[in-house]
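Example record for the data management plan.
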Amino acid sequence: MIKPADFALDAEQTRKIKKFYTLLSEGKEFYYTPFPDTLYADLNLTLTDKHLAMCMLRQLDKNIAESAEKIFRADKSKRSKVMSIAKLVEGKTIAELIDASMAAVEEINVPEYISHELEILKPSRLTIWTDTPRETASIYVRKKIDPLYNKDGDVGYIVLHATDLQHEAGVFTGEINSLPDEYFRHNIQHIEYLNFLKKVADRIV
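Corresponding structural encoding:
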């Protein structure tokens, strides 16, 4: 890793590297980078104790949820699965999705293994990505993640990359506008690291 000559890891950054590497080795999608000081995290079953998207779909329509579960179990890429599930919600409205999301969020909590880490995460920036619809993910982040990350009262912005479902006049078309898939996630980390290096280029030896 390239870094400025006068940049050194402090004790807390070293601890975070060990902590989040351990969680990653256990199958939790956390990527911590000290330069820039950022934690990247997936949402479902990483920052949630239940699958948020599936809980929302069950609240939205049980038949849709049953079909979505079959798609999740299929041997397909994540992008293909999300695109197939998006087609299931064609004709549903944003208002219906928000109502289902609010109900789903009430039954989900932040897992104990990460809740304290979120409370002491700052000054590290928190970036979350998920294939869950933006409307659903935003409600969960606002209600469950933000109170932990900003517990000290010094409000920090949480970056969220979520799936944008296409809609017309508030009705979903069954298509997606954007999806933070594996390619996107890799590129975001790479681009932000390069931007960091540009800012401190005069200090790299």
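Summary line stored alongside the record: The first strand starts at residue 30 and ends at 34.
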